[in-house]
Amino acid sequence: MEHPAAGIPLCLLLLLMTSTSSCFFSEASARINHGGGRQVLAPAAGQNSFPPVKLQIMDQYVVVGNGIVEVNLTNPGGSMTGIQYNGIDNLLEVVKSETDRGYWDVVWKGDGIIKKKGALDRLECKNLTVITEEEEQVELSFTRKWSSELQGKPVPLDIDKRFVMRRGSSGFYTYAIYEHSQQHPAFQLANTRLVLKPRKDKFHYMAISDKKQRPMPLPEDRVPPRGQPLAYPEAVLLVDPIEPQFKGEVDDKYEYSMESRDIKVHGWMGKDPSSSVGFWQITPSSEFRSAGPLKQFLSSHDGPTCLAVFHSTHYTGADLMVPFEAGEAWKKVYGPVFVYFNSLESEASSSSGTGMSLWDDAKNQLMVQAKQWPYRFLGSRDYPLPDQRGGITGRLSVHDPEISTRNLPPTGGWVGLAAPGDPGSWQLESKGYQFWTEVEEDGSFSISNVIAGQYNLYGWVPGFIGDYKYDAVINITPGRSIEVGDLVFEPPRNASTLWEIGVPDRTAGEFFIPDANPNYINKLYIHQEKYRQYGLWERYAELYPEADLVYNVRTDDYRKDWFFAQVTRKKGDNGTYEGTTWQVKYSLDRTYQNVNYTLRIALATANGAELQVRVNDPSSAVPLFTTGSIGKDNTIARHGIHGVYRLFSVVVPGSLLVDGSNTVFLTQAINTGPFYGLMYDYIRLEGPLSPNPPRN
Ligand SMILES: *[C@@H]1O[C@H](CO)[C@@H](O)[C@H](O)[C@H]1NC(C)=O
Ligand SMILES: *[C@@H]1O[C@H](CO)[C@@H](O)[C@H](O)[C@H]1NC(C)=O
Ligand SMILES: *[C@@H]1O[C@H](CO)[C@@H](O)[C@H](O)[C@H]1NC(C)=O
Ligand SMILES: *[C@@H]1O[C@H](CO)[C@@H](O)[C@H](O)[C@H]1NC(C)=O
Ligand SMILES: *[C@@H]1O[C@H](CO)[C@@H](O)[C@H](O)[C@H]1NC(C)=O
């Protein structure tokens, strides 16, 4: 990827690079440089028939509008108090206080913070700077510097929140730069997000994907006596909702969490998909989100709420509390997020005319934004422009000699660049940026628009256990694409498979997932993603009231006979639980005493669990293997099907095995409560190690 700029006039270049922008800005935009941002040439977003962008700065508010959308922010706090669109004076929740409608926030822990979950900081700023004020574009910067007399109150970071509105654009962009430097004390970052609260009297229908869309209950429905909090208080049974259609359903924001790779467009509409106004957020890239493409984040949920979560510990736990040392130098750009509005009448948004739903138009707008990515019009020097980015190309294949002597295409595999570390370390990495892509059918991949810097190349391939990592550190430089050629992933393997359970795909999705208790249904998940229903952990004890699961590898089917989660069993009604021991029964014709077998156990998630492995002797005081206490993923309570991926390889001495019938005992020993346990991804027994071991 040679940078194409040489010798081409900028105007033509922009035309070549952004299929949607027309080339008329030469006079209107000129050079823009008000408040210390870098110089940016701002091409128009649409046709020049649109009115110019206007900025009004008042004592306590600042209002920026382009004739399509008008955003009203507190000055100098930088909270969104109003969004005017399509004749509606405010799309944000007018019944909430003006700093509780649209804002950035951080949850953090550090000196002086006693709250267990950390302190919430809404990132109210102190200073407004106009970065750009032109007919084509206005960019505002709300900043706040931390100083030592503020110790223990705001998060110890310097904050720069940006808002950008462009001519002819049916929305606005927001991004933020967080900086930790020499004078800042140590702290831990738990969570940071952009929160948008559309008003509840206008927005009732939520869409987070093609198949996941539904009318939503009102926030009042969650409050007793209309709503009854369930075992995890964020889950509420709607016993007397204002709209009777929701009666008997469970509402829980975690039922709408999504993998980072799927979070691109989501939001709200009026009564239904054909109603007049849509409220969306669009993120063409996830480079700034923590922990890679499989990390799960909240999206939109009841409130109405529309979140862009950049970092959280959800589905991972304390391992994703980001530690900062005193004086540590760190800077990161979160976002940009495009906040987009559409309406069926408005020509500005629905260019293809009638027949298109607001959701379809929002998806279309995602494509428009993706074509422009990385944006050229953002004013902060900390957001790398296209020519400050590079790329990498190559081709991955998989070599597993027990499956094929040839290298196989890594079907459905993903590769990505993240901070240098161990294989799989990207799952817990959050200070840097990550760049991922799914490989092509033949294994080839190309990752472009990578911010210059040092990375490792990581990957995983469904159907194979383990993590891929390319040995060399990859140094991405501006304007260049690195060709790494043919790479081969050799997944862990000591010997051929004697038996296996499940599919190595990092989730427990292929196992038996029970129907939800009819008293705790979310109608959206009756025919899809059944694991998102509330209370499935209780179903284990209903299916196995006395004795635990026993699985025979020859006759049983993991899709029907392997419960998707190894959870605790409730004992009576006194609030006590017990750990469980599952048995895997298999038969070996000949066993070899003086060799080792290998038991591979891939876990899709764990929460306060301890997995102990015993072979043929369930009562041995010391297990053959224990994971020790692992995991704070909290996936069971939050209706996930995976959290952090963990792979264990257990050496099984042949002396423990017998000719004929053998049993592996898998004990989840922790019994503290209902949400402790684990989910398997895949289990297999390999061996014996030497191809023709001597018979004992
Ligand atoms: C901006 O919002 C404030 C508070 O909600 C309101 O008082 C003010 O009139 C608004 N200004 C404009 C121009 O909409
Ligand atoms: C606000 O920003 C301006 C421009 O960057 C700067 O000159 C001024 O000192 C800042 N004021 C405060 C209170 O930080
Ligand atoms: C078996 O696999 C494990 C983990 O992949 C590895 O550490 C071990 O060295 C292997 N054993 C042999 C004898 O190859
Ligand atoms: C709770 O109930 C179970 C089963 O009814 C019983 O075995 C257990 O001893 C009880 N535990 C306590 C602490 O009461
Ligand atoms: C089996 O594994 C154990 C423990 O890892 C090791 O000490 C032993 O040498 C192995 N035996 C053989 C025959 O490879």
What descriptive keywords fit this protein?
5 helices; nine-stranded mixed beta sheet; single chain; Beta-galactosidase, Chain A, domain 5; 43 strands; Immunoglobulin-like; nine-stranded antiparallel beta sheet; 3 domains; mainly beta; binds 2-acetamido-2-deoxy-beta-D-glucopyranose; Jelly Rolls; disordered N terminus; 696 residues
What is the structure about, briefly put?
By secondary structure, the protein is mostly beta strands.
Task: Provide a descriptive summary of the structure in words.
Helices cover 6% and strands 38% of the residues. It has 696 residues and is mostly beta strands. It has three domains: 10-372, Distorted Sandwich (Beta-galactosidase, Chain A, domain 5); 386-489, Sandwich (Immunoglobulin-like), CATH 2.60.40.1120; 496-687, Jelly Rolls. The strands form nine sheets. The chain has a nine-stranded antiparallel beta sheet, with helices on one face. Strands 33, 34, 35, 38, 39, 40, 41, 42 and 43 form a nine-stranded mixed beta sheet that branches. Strands 5, 6, 11, 21, 22 and 23 form a six-stranded antiparallel beta sheet that branches. The longest helix has 15 residues, at 358-372. Residues 594-596, 651, 653 line the site of one 2-acetamido-2-deoxy-beta-D-glucopyranose.
